[in-house]
Amino acid sequence: MSPSTPPPACEVLVVGAGPAGAACAQRLASRGHHVVLADQHVFPRDKVCGDGLIPDAHAALARLGVLDEVLARAQPVGVVRCIAPRGHHVDVPGHLCVLPRRELDHLLVRAAQRAGAELATPWRFERPLQGADGRVVGARLLARDGTVAEVAARWVVLATGAAAPPLVAAGLAERQAPSGVALRGYIRHEALAAQMRELQLVWHPRLKGGYGWIFPAPGGQFNIGTGVVAGHGQRRAGPNLRRMFEAFCEVHEPARRLVQEGTWTGELKGAPLRCSLTGARFSRPGLLGTGEAIGSTYAFTGEGIGKALETGLAAADALLAAPADDAAVQARYAATLAALKPLFDTYETASYVNRWPWIANLVVSRARKSPRILRKLQGLLEETQHPGQLFSVRGMARLMLE
Which end of the chain offers a freer environment for a tag, N or C, measured as fewer CB atoms within 10 Å? Predict the structure, then answer.
């Protein structure tokens, strides 16, 4: 997609064309609204992520009408393999696939354009435009050459991801520090691709505070990485992620083989994470925050694509319901996010498994022996089982007795 200039005015300006922003823009444009979707990059562009699409993402993609297109491009996967420090594992079945964000996000942007959204790239959000009463009435955008564009809009939707500066500039930031960090790269190893068809999650004392992963991607590639994922108030000075990645390759044989035998197709890159729907205000008059900007990533697992899509759709639905009533839009959006918050809170509690990886030994061992516990783990993946029933104090006590 070639660079494009934003118009001087629109009904809704969506800043950030990742999953949350693209989903919001598509929904609004498909209902006849004049939407401008702006991003600081020209698409397709790379994005640091694990690339795994779990059931909540599938459901949101289906709502957007693009699931079949995604599945036609993605690497299908049948199970998540949870590997405990002792080396034993349990396979949790689910409807899963892997598609690099470079492709997924480009697909979502094109879908938004087909719906009628106008794409403007590469333009970076500098600050909101405000009326005399303080209400947001648009945004000031900057091009790479320093060119300025001021876009008037009835509403601005901020979907700029985990970076703190846009949140600060928009007046939504409640904390600037991220909840976690992740590091990932791509390696092609066609021999292993013929053998490894599962999403691998690995807990180990040398990865304390987080975990390692290997996800099979299309074309004989693998997404491999490590992350330290916590929640609001839990982030501390953590390990050096490159040393953590090296440790991952020492304690997990498939990771070692990938690095030593495979061909790097994408360098190791890091990115911050914002989790648990905390750290940012959701809105102010004339402006909604959505996606990872407001913490749409799960603290325990680091999964965020599905919930980014969901929050983007929620922002659009709030605007569609009462676009001329600031208070009604803000209230409807806040209510939708409040309904999701208990789930995020439980995943934040469950993130103690990352800090105390020996617990993974217990969970995996019990799940290998108990079909009922395995079904509970599958229920977590499908979001039909509340994580508190496994990862609360009471849940862990029950686990030990089953």
Answer: C
